[in-house]
Amino acid sequence: MTTSTTGKPSTAAPLLDLQALVVAVRRRRRLWYALALLGLLAGPAAAVLLRPPPTAVTTVLVIHKEDQPNDTGTLIRTDIALLQTTRIAGRALKALASPEDPAEFLREYRGTGLTNNLLLIEATGDTGPDAVARARALADVFIADHVRRMRQTANAEAKALLDERDRMRDELARVNRDIGNRPPRSDPNASADIESLFARRAELNSRIAEFDRRAADARTGAPQVAAGTQIVDAPRTVRHSLPRAAATNAAIGLVLGLALGLALAAVGAVVADRPVLRREIAANLGASVIAELPGAPRPRPRRWRRRRTRAARERLTTTLVRTVRGCAEPVSLLELGCARGTGALALDVAAALAADGPVAVVDGLPGAELAAGRRGPEDPAVVSGADAESLPQQTRRLGVGSVAPGTAWTDLQYLGSRTVLVVRAGHGSAAWLHTVARQLADQRIPVLGVVLIDPDPRDRTDGTLWDGPYAAPHGRDERPTPPYGTAGPPRAERPPRQNRTGPPRTERPAMRAARVPDSEQEAR
Prior knowledge:
Elements: H1 18-27, H2 29-49, E1 55-61, H3 74-83, H4 86-96, H5 102-105, E2 109-113, E3 118-124, H6 128-181, H7 188-228, E4 230-237, H8 242-272, H9 278-285, E5 289-293, H10 303-325, E6 331-336, H11 339-353, E7 359-363, H12 369-372, E8 381-384, E9 396-402, E10 418-424, H13 430-442, E11 447-453
Helix pairs in contact: 1-8, 2-8, 4-6, 6-7, 9-13, 10-11
């Protein structure tokens, strides 16, 4: 959190910066481009390599005796379950005279309920005619099984009704015998018994007639079911268009790959927590961004892009030369994520400073590749850190080092008492940028500014710390000497010290920040 000149804390940073997240995802476009391209290629490849086998379909109208207008599809689901049984599969294979195992044949066809009475049967085969024959055999076997089951149900129901009718007839015969065996009497009780027997006989006759009618209806329903259950759509092969399938799969693969790439890029950006915006890098390092330089061009960049990159590099060199000339103490360039570019930049700055007097570049980069490189007679001298003490006093020294993980922090002060950080955007995590700022403050090395390499071209955030408090490094009461020999503001005019949880701030030099964008914008 930065502090304003009035001493009031600014608004706290949000938990998730959407702008930084969008920029981080856009910088990882190679990832989601690659996944989108992979999906685009995998879709047609799957369509070619995983071509569906020849398929035939047929539609069967299934009539149920228990059909109701408010049926929720229970009956048709029962028919689908019966279709997926080894009994139906075995009978269909027997009709086809095929030796295939019914359990394996179950995987080669399926049923789908279109409505409460329409059943769609799909069957696959080695060829189109084979698939059609299988679909027809399945439909015929299912219809025969359905009709047989309906007839068995009707016969069983009719038999139960007729058995009940016969029982009623036996009881009626007993009642008739009782009526015939009773002599006529004038006794009132005998007359009541006779009347009850006649009433019972009438009831039995009515129930016998009802059972006869219900048995006849049960027998009549089976022929209606048998006549109504039939094939309404003859078996036919399903056309499969390979170009259409390839195009569909390519579109699906492109969308899925792009979505997966964006998700992975977003999750990786949040987990890695690597600042990419100017304001984030400036806030984490506690120093202003004084210049920018586009990233490495393509293997074969266009002429106008090469011209723009060359102009941006010249502007950056001019800015750094002005910064080094304005400081009476040795200055170093410390890189993070761009060692080769920082070495070349140091040689350009040293070549520009050679007009003012002898200049030597002190190579403190890992591997000492800069000191071992070949140079012309007019190029500035490059010495290693061990040979820096043997340089004459009038020679201006320009140190080049690294603040990457594994840096020997105590050796940085021998490269220069002041430094300019050359940081590649998105290379270091926020925690490591805090570590760099804290370690430089412990070594009493003020940061004159930050040169941002490979910034986001659409970044419109401000990387300048306008408050610039003269903060004591890492909690000490002493403050660093202001750059360029200035004494700084009087003690009475200095802003009060505040408790801050962010990284310690080094003093910002009193100079204008020059921006070297990757566009036609003018430098600020």
